[in-house]
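Annex B. Sample input.
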Amino acid sequence: GVYDVTDFVRQHPGGEKILIGAGGPIEPFWALYAVHKKPYVYDLLAQYRIGNLSKADIVKDDADDPYANDPVRHPVFNINNPRPFNAEPPLNILADNFITPNDLFYVRNHHPSTRY
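Annex B, continued. Sample output.
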C-alpha cells in the first residue's frame, strides 16, 4: 500500500525517524524495527492508507535479515520480543547472585548486532 503519515509524525514515539521509511516498502524498515509487526500497528497504519501500487510498479527487494548476526542468547531468558531481542532473566536466578552473571546480562538495542 501507499501511506501518507504526515499527520502522524508528531504522534509517532520515534518522532521523525518514521520518515526513514518514506518512499519505499515498509518491510525492510520494519525488519530493522520489528516491534512494529503487531496487529494494533497495522490497524493504526490502515487509516493512513491512500492507495495501492500496481503489481508492475512493485520492486522486489531481497534484503538479508538484519538480525541474522545476533548472538545466541541464554535459553533461560523470558523472551518478550525476539527481534529486536528483548528479554528478561528469571527473577529466581537473579536472586541467587548479588551481581548478574555475565551470560544473563545483555544490553538491549533496537538495532541488529553487527559483531559479537
